[in-house]
């Protein structure tokens, strides 16, 4: 009981102290970054903990891994600040796990094993949150793979109708989906750069870096290598690329179907067991009777 009480109270006091110091030092910190924060209202406390204990310097491998994931999801802008906010969010979540575990252990009679589980859960929290970032990256790349062939097909139609590459790219972007679609958000940024008279090679290079995936690199490289030539050769290259991207979309759709089927296995087994129990229970009761 004493161990659990110390664990819970110590973690709670640490949270209060970090919140008080962080609110005073980082009271004007932005919390509207696109990165996901589970404890957004406690963001100053997490940022203070990272700065005060030099967490990024003490654990450089973890810091680099977080920054890589942030860069893959949200681009190169404000990467360091968002990485510190995410790392602080991990620390605060781990402390809250310790507080809740201690309270549950006290309510359950003070079993010391609960304290061990709390420490283990707090240690696993950053790893689980990293896995969540990896899952977000996979979903983002999957959506880009599924949507990119449609954009390329629109571009081919417009270029075939006489539009320039820049105009075709601008008209292919659905502005109503910029906030909901990762691909159209990236293309929306590219369109803004084109409208500001940034050169097409620079725009496509930045687009490829922001997306950081093979399909987008193939898309931008094909355009850069062939757009100056123009004519039928350029359209042939784009059609060949479109065919390859549609094939990749089909493979990704097939994978989605397989994953959906595998997720249905457990519910079907559970339903089968319930039906078996309902059917067999009268026979079992009659034998016992």
From TrEMBL:
It is a multi-pass membrane protein. This is Type II secretion protein F. One of its GO terms (cellular component) is plasma membrane. It is found in: Cell membrane. Residues 152-282 form the Type II secretion system protein GspF domain. Pfam families: T2SSF. Keywords: Cell membrane, Membrane, Transmembrane, Transmembrane helix. The chain crosses the membrane at residues 6-22, 85-107, 113-133, 264-287. It comes from Paenibacillus chitinolyticus. Coiled coil: none annotated. InterPro entries: T2SS_GspF_dom.
């Amino acid at each position: 009981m004493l161990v659990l009480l110390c664990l819970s109270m110590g973690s709670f006091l640490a949270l209060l102290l970090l919140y008080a110091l962080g609110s005073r030092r980082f009271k004007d910190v932005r919390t509207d970054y696109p990165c996901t924060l589970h404890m957004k209202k406690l963001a100053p406390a997490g940022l203070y903990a990272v700065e005060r204990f030099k967490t990024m310097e003490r654990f450089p491998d973890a810091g680099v891994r977080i920054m890589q994931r942030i860069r893959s999801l949200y681009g190169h802008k404000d990467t360091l600040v968002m990485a510190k906010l995410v790392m602080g969010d991990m620390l605060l979540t781990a402390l809250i796990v310790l507080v809740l575990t201690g309270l549950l252990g006290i309510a359950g009679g003070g079993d010391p094993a609960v304290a061990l589980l709390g420490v283990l859960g707090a240690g696993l929290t950053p790893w689980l949150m990293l896995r969540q970032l990896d899952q977000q990256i996979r979903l983002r790349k999957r959506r880009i793979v599924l949507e990119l062939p449609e954009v390329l097909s629109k571009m081919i139609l417009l270029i075939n109708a006489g539009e320039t590459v820049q105009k075709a790219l601008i008209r292919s972007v659905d502005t109503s989906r910029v906030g909901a679609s990762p691909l159209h958000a990236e293309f929306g940024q590219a369109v803004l750069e084109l409208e500001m008279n940034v050169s097409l090679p620079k725009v496509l290079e930045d687009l490829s870096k922001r997306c950081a995936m093979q399909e987008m690199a193939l898309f931008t490289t094909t355009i850069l290598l062939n757009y100056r030539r123009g004519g039928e050769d350029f359209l042939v290259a784009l059609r060949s690329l479109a065919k390859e991207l549609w094939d990749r979309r089909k493979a990704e759709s097939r994978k989605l179907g397989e994953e959906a089927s595998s997720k249905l296995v457990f519910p079907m087994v559970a339903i089968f067991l319930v039906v078996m129990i309902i059917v067999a229970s009268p026979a079992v009761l009659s034998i016992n009777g």
